[in-house]
Amino acid sequence: MTERLSDVALRLLSGKPAEDRSQMDAKTVAIVASKSPEGQRTLAEMQQRYGTATPEQADVIVALGGDGFMLQTLHRWRHTGKPVFGMKAGTVGFLMNLYRPDGLVERIAAAHPSVLRPLKMTAVGESGNTTELLAFNEVSLLRQTKQAAKIKVSLNGRPRIDELVCDGVMLATPAGSTAYNLSAHGPILPLGTDVLALTPIAAFRPRRWRGAILRSDTEVRFDILDHYKRPVSATADASEVRDVVEVVIRESRADAFTLLFDPEHSLEERILSEQFAL
Description:
Elements: H1 2-12, H2 18-28, E1 29-33, H3 37-50, E2 60-65, H4 67-77, E3 84-88, H5 104-110, E4 112-116, E5 119-125, E6 130-135, E7 138-143, E8 149-155, E9 158-166, E10 168-172, H6 180-183, E11 195-201, E12 212-215, E13 220-225, E14 232-236, E15 239-241, E16 244-251, E17 257-261, H7 267-274
Parallel strand pairs: 1-2, 2-3, 3-17
Antiparallel strand pairs: 4-17, 5-6, 5-16, 7-10, 7-14, 8-9, 8-13, 10-11, 11-12, 13-16, 14-15
């Protein structure tokens, strides 16, 4: 991936005339944006400067929006295998760089890559139907009614909690550990550590269980107990499956995706800074 980005940088920064540079930029950078007014305003400005290539045509995808739109971009365009350079044009921008319309090509050439490996969720519903989804942040299980959920937790086929009584439970990646996982008092995980955070949401029993840090190659299975009386939904990032009876989660190394960050504000540094936020 680094070699490809270097080739792109060499082509774009080779001192060609301005008119040739603009044509080359249009073939190299695809710009997508959220549907918010700010996203659409910045999209028009950036496309006027850098062209309107599609993600399939481009070498790099530039995403304008917030963290929610970044997740949408990763899911929608993951089949292209293209790296994504995000710029904040929304409310929350933990996964985004600062928005600056100038010097986009130079910023991409100097950017630091961070590889995200999503979780693959396989959920079985009450009717027996199976749904497979990817999650770059987390997979979360939540109760659907006023009654607490009862969930059996197994790791690599071995039961670890026979009955977790809770509002829910989640498995978060390092990139997602500063999102919903953090609000549920889960641990912040540094990138590159090959671990996942298993975090309960408002656990009633066992009272002292606060979660666990697992190796990334751990297979996590949740069995929903008494699911007719205590229904549970499973959500992979923003995609929800309701009335599940069984959820199995594994890390998917086949679907790795690369995000690009300005070197002065890398994702690793942001995650580290979150651990010292007082």
